[in-house]
């Protein structure tokens, strides 16, 4: 039986640094970098945990990206994928976003892989050039050690906020984390947790409705939450509103009963 | 999630009331109808912190902590955060462009835009207020703005609530 013909590479990643050869890159670092390149080329957001109940959406067909070969002399990794896969287009978008972060709106899938690749570039003391295979001028994106920092300086807004959600998971082997089902996005929101105490509180509230307060990082143009650290959590009781109001009346809300004109009181409270 | 303006909350919390208050029993009755409807739908209620501070104005300061603790257990009380501040500014600017009839002219405008922006950012999709101009602001923020209902969809419960507040029944 004839051996299948070797396909032509579609794009390649060059780890461009002094003395860098395939065998000088630790396997763990390489694995992480290749995973980041795969996510960047696939052009879809993947959760940090990667095991959302929605499944590993990058398996097929979007991640039909395969490593074709490795070229020694430098560390060049060649990839193959179907022509209509959109990988080259996605990598090109990543390059454009690096050049002009203000235009990054829908392409937020680049953030996690870009952070990973910048960290890899820093660790290896190199830059990672993603280019069309077999093309002299086909550079799609160049990731340098500071690329992610430059990007994040320009596209993120950070601040304290609060929202409600349902606790779906709590824990984490390497860091304290929590997954919340929230109303503002269809997928789970994976959050960091500030302290063990808060993590324990969240654990006790598994599958409950809670209000969380913490520090969010949003994408400037879309206000999409890309990172959230939970600083405190409050359980929300599903007590009937009428009962809750009766309790508030007893706890001092009766002070409104005797007021001549509540609207005027409110206006005065507002400084009018 | 649903938000109510501070007056609707006050009518909901009051049990008796000073007869000098305009339309007191009618508004308390409408607030009660709303509360039952929201309970029926298991609706989550958002009470922005700015509303909380307004509610506390007539709560004795020795009761503040207990009142707030109870409030937080049953309702989501989001603070006026950086994202809400952006929306509040936008609302204020949009409000200035409205015709004079549509502008609230309210002395509480600054507080209203902050409450509405906070509620919207916190995820509220509906806003209840008896004030037409306040509802206009809520609409500008992208929420469905409604007046307090005058009838409960269930006629028996509607009559029951109205009797409780001495209001005419069907």
Overall description:
The complex is a heterodimer of chains A (272) and B (170). In chain A, the strands form 2 sheets. Chain A has a 5-stranded antiparallel sheet with strand order 2-3-1-4-5. The longest helix of chain A is centred in the first third of the chain and has 16 residues. In chain A, 29% of the residues lie in helices and 29% in strands. Chain A has 272 residues and is α+β, with helices and mostly antiparallel strands. In chain A, helix 1 runs antiparallel to helix 3. Chain A is elongated. Chain B is globular, with a radius of gyration of 16 Å. With 170 residues, chain B is of the alpha/beta class.
Quick structural summary:
The complex is a heterodimer of chains A (272) and B (170). Chain A is α+β, with helices and mostly antiparallel strands.
Oligomer: heterodimer
Give the low-pLDDT segments of chain B. none
Order of helices and strands of chain A: EHEEHHEEHEEEHEEHH
* Helix-strand pattern of chain B: EHHEHHHHEHEH
Relative helix content of chain A? 25-40%
Q: What helical percentage do the residues of chain B reach?
A: 40-55%
Structural class of chain B: alpha/beta
Largest sheet of chain B: 4 strands, parallel
Mean pLDDT of chain A: 86
- The general outline of chain A is elongated
């Amino acid at each position: 039986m004839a051996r299948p013909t070797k396909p032509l590479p579609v794009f390649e990643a060059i780890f461009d640094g002094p003395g860098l050869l395939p065998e000088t890159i630790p396997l763990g670092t390489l694995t992480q970098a290749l995973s980041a390149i795969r996510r960047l080329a696939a052009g879809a957001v993947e959760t940090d945990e990667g095991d959302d109940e929605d499944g590993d959406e990058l398996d097929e067909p979007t991640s039909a990206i395969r490593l074709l070969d490795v070229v020694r002399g430098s560390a060049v990794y060649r990839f193959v994928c179907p022509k209509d896969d959109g990988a080259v287009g996605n990598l090109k978008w990543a390059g454009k976003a690096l050049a002009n972060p203000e235009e990054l709106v829908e392409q937020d899938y680049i953030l996690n892989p870009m952070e990973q690749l910048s960290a890899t570039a820093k660790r290896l003391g190199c830059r990672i050039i993603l280019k069309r295979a077999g093309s002299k001028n086909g550079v799609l994106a160049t990731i340098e050690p500071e690329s992610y920092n430059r990007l994040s300086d320009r596209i993120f807004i950070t601040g304290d906020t609060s929202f409600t959600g349902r606790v779906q998971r709590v824990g984490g082997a390497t860091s304290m984390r929590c997954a919340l089902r929230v109303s503002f996005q269809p997928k789970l929101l994976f959050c960091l947790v500030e302290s063990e105490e808060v993590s324990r509180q969240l654990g006790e509230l598994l599958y409950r409705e809670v209000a969380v307060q913490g520090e969010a990082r949003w994408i400037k143009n879309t206000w999409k939450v890309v990172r959230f650290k939970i600083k405190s959590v409050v359980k929300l009781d599903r007590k009937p509103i009428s009962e809750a109001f009766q309790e508030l009346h007893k706890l001092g809300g009766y002070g409104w009963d005797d007021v001549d004109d509540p609207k005027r009181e409110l206006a005065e409270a507002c400084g009018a | 999630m649903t938000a109510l303006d501070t007056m609707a909350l006050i009518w909901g919390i009051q049990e008796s009331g000073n007869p000098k208050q305009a339309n007191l029993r009618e508004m308390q009755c409408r607030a009660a109808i709303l509360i039952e409807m929201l309970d029926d739908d298991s609706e989550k209620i958002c009470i922005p912190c700015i509303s909380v501070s307004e509610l506390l104005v007539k709560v004795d300061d020795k009761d503040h902590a207990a009142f707030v603790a109870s409030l937080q257990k049953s309702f989501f009380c989001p603070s006026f955060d950086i994202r809400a501040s952006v929306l509040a500014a936008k609302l204020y600017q949009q409000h200035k462009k409205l015709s004079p009839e549509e502008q609230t002219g309210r002395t509480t405008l600054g507080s209203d835009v902050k409450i509405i922006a906070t509620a919207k950012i916190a995820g509220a999709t509906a806003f209840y207020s008896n004030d037409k101009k306040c509802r206009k602001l809520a609409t500008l923020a992208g929420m469905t703005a409604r007046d307090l209902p005058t009838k409960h969809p269930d006629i028996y419960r509607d009559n029951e609530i109205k009797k409780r507040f001495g209001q005419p029944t069907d």
